[in-house]
Request: fold
Amino acid sequence: MTDLGTLPGGTDSFATAINAHGQVTGNAVAAGGAQHAFRWTRSGGMRDLGTLPDGTFSRGTGINARGLVAGNAGLSEGTQHAFRWTDTGGMRDLGTLPGGRNSFVPQELGPAVNAGGQVIGTAETADRTQHAFRWTESGGMQDLGTLPGGSFSRATAINGPGQVIGIGDTLGGAQHAFRWTESGGMQDLGTLPGGTFSQATAINAHGEVAGNAGSAGSTQHAFRWTESGGMQDLGTLPGGTSVQATVINAHGQIAGDAMTADGTVHAFRWTEGGGLEDLGTLPGGTSSEAAAINAHGQIAGQARTVDGIFHAFRWTESGGMEDLGTLPGGAGSFGSGINARGQVAGGSFLVAEGALHAVLWTP
Reply:
């Protein structure tokens, strides 16, 4: 376990995303008390990415294989703009849609930036409604519009080819998941049979989408959507009810959280051949939550210990759920990202300091 530390004079930090090279982005409290985005590298340590000119704060939410960071930054006038940071160009304001005031990239889902440096998010229009956007170096911020007859849309993730997913309203006012492509525009992914809503949370390079939808029984079920098969209900754990998908990998494996028969929440992994698999809990613990999955099907998240405290975990096919522990003197930890090497990024709470530090666990 590596303590990624804090910014000079700061107190807290936590990691939000990790790339294939073990570079980490996240947020840290700077000397003046404001939150700043950071990028951590093995050779350079924690680097303060600063703020936009006349800005007040920044938050890093996504990082690609080239070390490019996407996030959100506050302006002194009280608005918020999405940004893209590079080694050579620093922090670049991605602006807003014409007449709008605010823009932001998703802070909990993602990724918000792909390998080509394209960034997605949501921005205000002139009439103060929200529209999903995709930003590219050549075209700037592109309004992705809405579903037919709808009034708003929000983007949640982008894949390598530049396909965007999210949620928007329909003519009848229902909220539906969408997938946007350069050639086809915004496509309504529909709902499960008898359901009323859907939302897309993750997309892989093949255009397969994971998300959640209302079922006929008024509970929430996870789904996988494919071009050829449409929306597939992933079902539930034995005796369980609701299921929530969070992430999907290149092989179409999906991870998330599911209700068990006794009413507790367990992390799951879904595969084409094995269906919904309960990942269980740490010894003596009661619950677990999945936050990320890599191309090998390894999963990171957090789970309660026998003491009732959350600890970060890494789950593998061969080893099951591994407790990643905490920093020395820590009171708890969480995992927020995992790369193909099995490195997990997250945070650990320090009791003596009353602080949170970003951490990197390496197998």
Observations:
- The mean pLDDT is 95.
- The CA atoms of residues 6 and 13 lie 6 Å apart.
- The longest strand covers residues 55-63.
